[in-house]
Amino acid sequence: MVAAIKKPDGVLFWLSVVATSIGLLAIYDAGYARSAVDGAAIPREFKSQLVSALVAVAFGSLVWFVRRQTWKWLPWAFYGATLLGLLAVKLFGTEINGATRWIDFKVFTVQPAEFAKVAVILLLAVIFADRREANPLPKGKTHWAERLDYVWIPRLARGWPLIFVLVLAGLVLVEPDLATALMVVVIAGAILLMGRVSRGSLMTLVAVSAIAVTFMVIKEPYRMTRMLNHGDRWSSSNIDGIGYQTTQSEASMSYGGFFGVGLGKGRAKHTLPAPTTDFVMATVSEETGLVGTLCVLSVLGGIVWRLIHLARAAKDQFARLVNYGTATWIGVQSCTNIVMANGFVPPIGVPMPFISAGGSSLLALWIAIGASQSLLRKSTEEVTEHEARRHRRWHRRTRISRA
Predict the structure, then answer these.
(1) E strands of 7-88, at which residues?
(2) Which of 47, 102, 130, 298 is deepest in the core (most CB within 10 A)?
(3) pLDDT by residue (tens digit) across 372-384?
(4) What is the per-residue burial (b if ≥16 Cβ within 10 Å, else e) of 301-329?
(5) How many domains would you assign to the chain?
(6) pLDDT tens-digit profile of 295-328?
(7) How far apart are CA 87 and CA 95, in angstroms?
(8) Is the pTM of this model over 0.70?
């Protein structure tokens, strides 16, 4: 009999708490240089992230208690709320540095695009949880009209979930936020792959995404310039211009060496324009060296490993897909951020999960963590109850036969 999970998975929970705590320390360290200039003793980003962390952990823990029946409709409600949030950004969002991605509620701001990642995970997981394999083409049905009836029309009908993905990705893309839109598509692709969809559906998603990305890169000249000049970022014409953030981050990470220059002694926080967000790992690497960087990546890698382990232990497809989708999100985004910080790829605005400043990102991550554990508990409880009924029936039949 499968033992029901009566409490949250301790390994996943505490790894997430450790990652959140590391993020708070990194944000405080990277932000205090600017706060000292402004005359503040504590960085503003740290105060905001601390409140966000408390709310995120509390909210993620509450998700654990969501009933199994609620998960049948909750992904649709969450998707609808995210969609309304993205539409609200277009209507009365706050513009910062040429991008409109936030809704300002005066007391706090919200970035709905971060919740699009969770919405795609939950919605695709609930759709593909009960999906059956497509009917094969009957023997002898080779005429184009027969293939249209038996293959192409059913495939189009089965491909309708892609519309939900492309709608969210499109709204994020026009904010503009190319990096988050790509992450939404990557997460969707992973769930489609685990959901055993056809190669044609996957290729359709890849093709549409490639066309959209190409169009957005060409449409925005600064993106094309950044990509074309990335290889020449250290030249005198680019080092203080288009390549400034990347070169400063690269230099700081190289200064760290193996053990780092020491906490609080780094230069990245003084030179980078936004040291607490996308390039927070520059300060971490510079002050703690390769050892500290590997420790941070090990914690994030441990979260990904645990999610995959829990996905394999799940007894239903819904829980399995949610865990795989969350693991893909954290794993791919972590790798992308670190190769962006060390200059391997151009800066594309991808934050480090749990580490970079951002209340919406942290809340979305903890919602996904809570959902993965809640679904795992519910799936094992269902299996346990099912097997318990089987054992009761078996004992009943045994007593009757003995009588």
Answers:
(1) none
(2) 102
(3) 989 887 555 444 4
(4) bbbbbbbbebbebbbbbbbbbbbbbbbbb
(5) 1
(6) 999 999 999 999 999 999 888 899 999 999 999 9
(7) 14
(8) yes
